Amino acid sequence: MTTKEIVSAMTMEEQASLTSGADFWHSKAIERLEVPSVTMSDGPHGLRKQVTTTNDHMGLNEAVEAVCFPAGCATACSFDRKVLYRLGRLLGNECRAEGVHVLLGPAVNIKRSPLCGRNFEYFSEDPMLAGDLAAAYIKGVQEEGVGVSLKHFAANNQEHERMCSSSEMEDRTLWEIYLPVFERAVKQAKPWTVMCSYNRVAGAFASEDKKLLTEILRDKWGFDGVVVSDWGAVRDRVAGLKAGLELEMPSSNNTNDAKLLEALASGELTKEELALAAERMVSLAKKAAEGAKKPAVFDRAADHREAVRLAEECMVLLKNEQALPLKPEDRVAVLGGFAFHPRYQGGGSSHIHPHFVPDMPRLAEKYGPITFAEGFSATGDKVDQALMEEALAAAKEADRVVIVCGLPEQMESESFDRKHMKLPECQNLLVEKVCDLGKKVVVVLQNGAPVELPWADRVDGILEAYLAGEGVSEAILNLLYGKANPCGKLAESFPIRLEDNPSYLFYPGLHHKAHYGEGIFVGYRYYEKKKMPVRFPFGHGLSYTTFAYSDLQLSSSVIRPDEEITVSLRVKNTGTMAGKEAVQLYVSDHTETYHRPEKELKGFDAVSLQPGEEKMLTFTLAWRDFACYSEEVGDYYAPNGAYEILIGASSADIRLSCGVTVAESPALPLVIGMDTMIGELLSDPRTNNFVKEALTPKLSVLTGDAGDGFDEMVEAMIRDMPLRSLRSFVGLSNEELDGLIAELSALV
Ligand code: BGC
After folding, report:
1. Which of the pair, 321 or 698, is modelled with greater confidence?
2. How far apart are alpha carbons 422 and 411 in whole angstroms?
3. Alpha-carbon span 87 to 69, nearest angstrom
4. Nearest to 273 by CA among 261, 287, 285, 288
5. Domain co-membership, 359 together with 286
6. Helix or strand or coil: residue 61?
7. d(CA 707, CA 696)
8. Model-level pTM?
9. 3-class DSSP assignment, residue 649
10. Average pLDDT rounded to a whole number, residues 740-745
11. Whether pLDDT at 702 is above 80
């Protein structure tokens, strides 16, 4: 039977029953029509499949043993779609082996503030990077016959009051920063489901927002799957279904199914609306059943090894002044509670029951002589004098000191935001005291989001491990000892202090309103515009080898609407160790038509090279890559004029650049009336000539005897003068003014 036939064979009760969960993790089945139930499970960086009767959405109760892979904060730093795709394949396979049909991830919300409690799950402050990496992850999972749930749609950038807060921003900000991440993932990878967020956007609950769930997601972007609510996000079920929310999760104990039937009876809901939701649910159930047919084996040991490899490809070497790699003969002291109790995942719904998390002491003998000392506890911030003394004594005996710092688990989790950006005092103190000893010091960080690093200039090396999954300790040791070459780059800026962050003045908002006052200037878009120093810039990451960039070429130096151009360049490994380089392409708008960031990421690729090897990289840019969101046009718009393409090893390390021109973009709408300014008419090609020929001579009375040095003043005065002022300054009658407006209107 076709999906439509199945749904028309259902009673209204059966159709309504499909639109809410059977329990915490399953949709309802309709056995008589062979519609199976769909099993869902968190996500995003490992499986949290609960099989107990006490289920929850906060990671509190037991889940089956699974492999904990690096979290989104780490995997984004790979800048490598292949890494995310591999991760997706691994997760998809594990899901199939455990009978899970839909994995609740990836989580892609933009990192607006370093304080957001869920930043560890999210990818980036940049929508292009986050969107494309999400797409690669989705393709990987879905290739295995398992669906994903792209979450949390939309503008869910804080945990504070997450179920009530309204994200308030200008249209331009929404369309330029917060929506494109979802758009890219939806268009490129067709996720089976999208999860709507808890919060409101401009006052409307995401779970009831027809503009978001239907007009944008389906009509504009072509989404053809199921929209599922975040767990407990449903408020008014009828409004939700009408807006495009097909599945309420978890179960509403049928109370909302009954509401739908009442609405059907009263005419508030139409039969067609209910049937459409049921059809979409049946399609999902069919896809799930089909995908589950292929057998799968969950080899935890093999996946653990993959977790280590992935972690190695994500960690970011932030600083290295001849401190790394360590040599096997170095006498090394490894200090810090996290060496013994690694922090490798975040708290909340993504919390995984890992298969195997070896700590550093357990692995040490493979690397060289290492002495371990705790120095501080991994769970608190109080200084323990005895632990500190013991660590300093170990440091004194060593050639090199590694201090493993991080954010204790209870300081960073889903459901609350951090209050500050500092590391615990006991950690900062130990780092400073070890620096006083004059040894080479390397700090390793295990955290889900940026922290302030007051001692950054004093230490010789910093390795950002983020929350790197159960392979964290092996990956760190492999990188420290040069058994693997660091290749991660920061997917977010590290401000020097919290107060530098653009959202600082507004975050997290008050009285159920989160005001996005910084607008489009999020992360590097802000720091660069303000010429503000950061601790480490977006896209930064070091390697043990070096790369040379050359031969930048464009297929055309002009781009028009509906056209594409290709940008190619050569990258060569000029060092002595095999390595991977994440190359970044930024576009900078020089037209000065809109307030825009200095530059924006529009392409990235990671290339692996043996020593001496070189490869060509090619990027494709479309007209939209030069565009911003224009509120006048109500769409994306690239002004005509000059732009620059910048190729960088980071946002602050631009290696190659060249100019490109946008041409033949339609003119911006120009409304002609008595308030239109002369300058607006002069800068529009349609009215420019007319103004010069018919108006400028008349305006000469204004330029009079201004004399040298006043040209700029006179020019500005004329430019900003509305047409109505011609009455007072040039002597136009009202009739003449009306005639002029009519003539100008005919030109646009
Ligand atoms: C989270 C989701 C998660 C769901 C199910 C919610 O609290 O926001 O990301 O998938 O719970 O556990």
Report:
1. 321
2. 10
3. 8
4. 261
5. no
6. coil
7. 18
8. 0.97
9. strand
10. 96
11. no
* Alpha carbons 60 and 415: distance in angstroms, whole number: 13
Whether pLDDT at 412 is above 70: yes
Contacts of residue 55, Cβ cutoff 8 Å, sequence gap at least 6: 23, 24, 25, 61, 250
pLDDT at 407: 97
- Note whether residue 6 is domain-resident: no
The confidence score (pLDDT) of residue 713 equals 85
Q: What is the C-alpha to C-alpha distance for residues 598 and 607, in angstroms, rounded to an integer?
A: 26
- The 10s digit of each residue's pLDDT in 579-592 is 999 999 999 999 99
Q: What is the pLDDT of residues 20-64, one digit of tens each?
A: 999 999 999 999 999 999 999 998 999 998 876 677 776 767 788
Is residue 205 helix, strand or coil?
strand
Residue 369 CA to ligand 1 center (angstroms) comes to: 44
Task: Give the chain's radius of gyration (CA, Å).
Answer: 29
Nearest CA to ligand 1 atom 9: 349
Q: How many structural domains compose the chain?
A: 4
Measured from the Cα of 57, ligand 1's closest atom is 12
| Region 671-696 average pLDDT | 93
DSSP class per residue in 151-190: EEETT----TTTTT-EEE--HHHIIIIISHHHHHHHHHH-
Question: 494 and 434: one domain?
Answer: yes
Domain boundary among 265, 291, 317: 291
Q: Which two tokens stand for residue 332?
A: 């090394």
Q: Which residues contact 273 (CB under 8 A, 6 or more apart)?
A: 241, 242
Instruction: Read off the amino acid at residue 605.
Output: D
Q: Could you tell me the pLDDT band of residue 708, with boundaries at 50, 70 and 90? A: low
Q: How far apart are CA 669 and CA 594, in angstroms?
A: 14
pLDDT in tens, 511-559: 899 999 999 999 999 999 999 999 999 999 999 999 999 999 999 999 9
Number of residues in the chain: 748
* Count of C-beta atoms within a 10 Å radius of residue 309: 16
Catalytic residue among 80, 209, 230, 684: 230
User: What are the start-end ranges of the E strands in 413-498?
Assistant: 440-446, 461-464
**pLDDT above 90 coverage of the chain, percent:** 92
User: Is the pLDDT reported for residue 486 higher than 90?
Assistant: yes
User: Is there a domain that residue 669 lies in?
Assistant: no
What is the CATH number for 191?
A: 3.20.20.300
Tokens of 308: 């280590």
Whether residue 245 sits in one domain with residue 176: yes
- Say which DSSP state 202 is in: T
Closest to 113 in 3D by CA, of 418, 490, 529:
418
Nearest CA to ligand 1 atom 12: 57
Question: How remote is the CA of residue 249 from the centroid of ligand 1, in Å?
Answer: 10
Q: Cβ < 6 Å from ligand 1: which residues?
A: 42-43, 57, 104, 151, 230-231, 349
With bands split at pLDDT 50, 70 and 90, how would you rate the model's confidence at 706? low
Test site for ligand 1: of 61, 349, 352, 413, most ligand atoms within 8 A of the Cβ: 349
Amino acid identity of residue 335, one-letter, is L
How many C-beta atoms lie closer than 10 Å to residue 193's C-beta?
23
Catalytic: 738? no
d(CA 475, CA 480): 9
Q: If you ran DSSP here, which 8-state letter would residue 499 be given?
A: G
- Tell me: do 377 and 466 sit in the same domain: yes
Using CA atoms in the order 75, 76, 79, 85, what is the torsion angle rounded to 10 degrees?
A: 60
Tokens (6 digits) for 640: 């005509």
The average confidence (pLDDT) of the chain is: 96
H or E element at residue 363? helix 360-363
The residue range of the domain holding 615 is: 547-662
Mind listing the pLDDT tens digit for each residue in 261-316? 999 999 999 999 999 999 999 999 999 999 999 999 999 999 999 999 999 999 99
Flag the least confident range among 90-104, 157-171, 682-696: 682-696
